[in-house]
Fold this sequence. Notes:
The structure holds two protein chains of two kinds. Chain A is α+β, with helices and mostly antiparallel strands. Chain A has helices spanning 41-49, 91-101, 106-119, 135-148, 165-179, 193-199, 217-222, 227-232; strands spanning 2-12, 15-26, 30-35, 56-61, 64-65, 76-79, 153-157, 185-190, 202-207, 210-216, 239-246, 249-252, 255-258, 269-275, 280-281, 290-302, 305-312, 315-322, 332-337, 343-345.
Amino acid sequence: MALVIKDITKVVRGVTHIKPTSLTLDTGHFNVLLGETGAGKTSLIKMMAGLDPIAAGQIEMDGTDVTKLTTQQRRISLVHQFFVNYPHMTVYDNIASPLRVARMAKSEIEDRVQEAADILKLSPMLKRRPHELSGGQQQRCALARAIAKDSQAVFLDEPLANLDYKLREELRELLPELFAGRGAVVVYATSEPEEALLLGGKTALMIDGRVAQYGPTADLYRAPDTLTAAQIFSNPPINHAPMSKQGNTLRMGNIAWDATGDAAGLRDGEYTVAIRPNHILPNASDTATVPLTGRIGVTELSGSESSAHFDFQGHGWVSLAHGTHPYQIGEDHTFYMDAAACLYFGPDGSRAA
Amino acid sequence: MKTENQKAWFFVLPVLALVAFNALIPMMTVVNYSVQETFGNNQFFWEGLTWFEQILRSERFHAALGRQFLFTFLILIIEVPLGVAIALSMPRSGPWVSVCLVLMALPMLIPWNVVGAMWNIFALPDIGLLGYFLNHTLGIDYDMTQNPFAAWVTIITMDVWHWTSLVVLLAYAGLVSIPDAYYQAAKIDGASNWSVFRYIQLPKMKNVLTIAILLRFMDSFNIYTEPFVLTGGGPGNSTTLLSIDLVKIALGQFDLGPAAAMSLIYFAITLLVSWLFYTLMTKDDLN
């Protein structure tokens, strides 16, 4: 089972919303669509679901061309960011509705609804109506509806975005179990890099209506193709600044360090260096060796981590480190950068090393 | 210590006065007439329930009541499904929405007696556009001034023309309040158009349709001006609806007592049927 899209395009009133996009999405792992708001994640999902027309291209499910099929004819499920359940039906009827439409036998419907309700811990509230449920329960009901049905593809469009932190964690832990062994291609849209990393699988990085990079999620995180991709796949935002290489020396403003590893292969010239906040630490260590001094602006403490925003040669940079650190706002502080974790991008924004 | 604030009465007073003057006092006058006989000179004689008995046993009243129920039944079973069908086929967004809404609202903006006069002229067999066309072009024998069936077809058509819009507008308001997400969810579930209507659109329209049916029931049950101007209750008594008959008794024959008794019975029936409709249509919401 695979969902293959070939050069699909979306044009609205002469404006191209989705540039020709091709992807092969497999079952057995999450296929994450990661991108900022407006990058085209929802559009792409709607096109794959047949809800939005495609201007050109082809969609195949399990080797069959479904481009011309209506949404009703495709065997798919979709869970929205906001909770969509039929308001006048009970939870049971909501979960059963796609099965009833498919004219499934009554006993089979009952089994499937029970199974879905068990996994999603909805069994005690099958007789209630959606408005009598909490937000988390409503979304679980929508998820139950999506898994009760035999779908070839399940689309999850930021399903956790409207839930509070605790519920989000809880439901996210449930997700892998939900889809394990169902043989459906699971497509998960999110704007949060952490969520993509937590779900694993493969990620398609979307920028401005096209897939900028696609591959195993961890690889994408480690080796983004472009500076934009690195920026999208980083929270807090990735730090970057202009840099030049001459001989074996890398120079960023008045800071210089020796080129090692990948950077040693760079030709002399101008580059942009980018480094994630967790590779800039408040104290020197075996790996974090390059000192940078900047004036501390804002500091944040989030549980076990503390971050500091500082002005580094006119660039707003962030350091993210474990533990708490006694930063003095408005004072200069010397941070240490792990040079081995630096990414280098050429003038056109594509990665050089 | 007992504290009582009598100020509240002061605030209720305006409403009380308004209701008293436009409903209670006129109605009590009618009650007063309904139990007495008068021959002018402001002389009244106590009659008890005589007039009520007379009206309830009167075949003329039964016939008018029957016609009234038939009329209301016919316009409801035409206007409600038709109104819903039109609302369903109206665009939900784009520039045509306002065009459709204005077109729909137009008939309702025309004064009732003008509607009656318009349809009268429209349907006249020798000079009316519709009457002439039916008789002379299509060769159908149609004359609402002579033929009771033609008269009924005309008053029903007129009412449908005048008031279906109300159902359309209310149903449309119910429809546009349905978020796109429900339609998408239904599509993904594989639901047919009928299921979408039955399980999404109809439940969402239920409340507004209850209001539409109630309004159309009350309005059509009390209708006077349009059929009076159109047919004057004729030919014969064939389109004499309750209100037309009531005016004939009260102002034509000047039988104020029986007319008052009839008014109260008429009012009681309208109230009872409205209550029944409302109770039946909202009973699901209670549990």
